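G., the chain you wanted modeled:
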Amino acid sequence: MVTDNIKKAVASKDLFSIRSYLTALVITDKTLSGNFKDCFEYCVENGILESEIYEPHNGIELSDEVTKENYKTLWGGLNSNFSRERVEALKKIAIKLYPPKIDSNNNQGGNNHNTSNNDQRCGNSARHVRTDKDGNKLIYAIVAGVAVLIGIVLFAG
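Predicted structure as tokens:
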């Protein structure tokens, strides 16, 4: 589902916000194959070139080690360098760390799009997703948290 925040950022061609929202989506879409993919494709389909979304890679060597710590490091690096190389490395590790699960009906879980109101289903589990009065997912806190992390990293070093 494409968020209103992404739609607004695309309409105003706000690349910083687009990257920030895509980075925040990774928290709930660890494999980058659900909402992340939908929102990324929306950007491209609505006039934002991939070359505009991605930044040139900053040259930092990216580990392909399949660990949650490395995954978190790569994800955290998106805040300062949203590069194609970093996103692709994240996807490769995510496939191994978070493989699709088979639910009891032998359907692949993970990206079940049968959602209702405030429930998001993943396999057999449901979790509550807070929404505002217009039904938009509230990722403002996530984006604020990402901004705080960026500030800490920039000013601590």
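Strands lie at 119-122, 125-128.

Shout if anything looks off.
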